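Q: Given only this backbone (199 positions), what sequence would you predict?
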């Protein structure tokens, strides 16, 4: 009996890589449309909103051992850092369309942060805190007051929102390019086109 050669790359069926690219493209389209909704409508809620909220609250816990300012800022820090870490990991795996999807996640997180910052001087949002209770503080009211920038909350929020639009635009073109490569490449090289150029 002959044992298979595990060092040899598995054969790619002619349509399998293109099918995989098509599924990735559908997920990317969902994230792009969702990000557009969040950037246009501050009140929008989606599936990714729950993930962002959970990541934000986890950030407060992760940074709890540090000084208070870091504990407060930790929610936003981890909320923005998480999609960047995921993008970096996917890039190392040559999952280029996944990188674009993570970019959309980052754009949604930036839109969410912009809403939070814009509320710093108003205090109209219903706040959520780990463990519940009525002692929740507004992260950005605290941070901007500490930095003497509370009067600039709308300007800062606008800049963060604009950054979200830029990130989404980059994610769109990056993802579109690799989707196009994956869908139009030769069957024999399609797998590498999904994941980007091999080393």
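A: Predicted residues:
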């Amino acid at each position: 009996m002959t044992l298979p050669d595990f060092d040899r790359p598995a054969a790619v069926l002619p349509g399998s890589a293109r099918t995989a690219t098509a599924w990735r493209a559908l997920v990317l389209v969902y994230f792009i449309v969702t990000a557009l909704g969040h950037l246009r409508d501050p009140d929008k809620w989606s599936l990714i909103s729950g993930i962002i909220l959970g990541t934000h609250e986890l950030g407060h816990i992760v940074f709890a051992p540090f000084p208070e300012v870091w504990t407060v800022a930790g929610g936003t820090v981890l909320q923005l850092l998480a999609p960047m870490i995921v993008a970096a990991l996917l890039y190392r795996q040559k999952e280029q369309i996944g990188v674009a999807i993570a970019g959309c996640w980052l754009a949604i997180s930036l839109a969410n942060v912009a809403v939070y910052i814009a509320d710093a001087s108003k205090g109209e949002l219903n706040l959520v805190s780990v463990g519940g209770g009525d002692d929740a503080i507004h992260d950005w009211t605290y941070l901007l007051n500490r930095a003497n920038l509370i009067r600039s909350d709308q300007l800062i929020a606008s800049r963060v929102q604009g950054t979200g639009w830029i990130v989404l635009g980059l994610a769109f073109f990056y993802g579109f390019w690799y989707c196009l490569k994956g869908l139009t490449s030769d069957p024999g090289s399609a797998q590498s086109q999904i994941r980007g150029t091999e080393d």
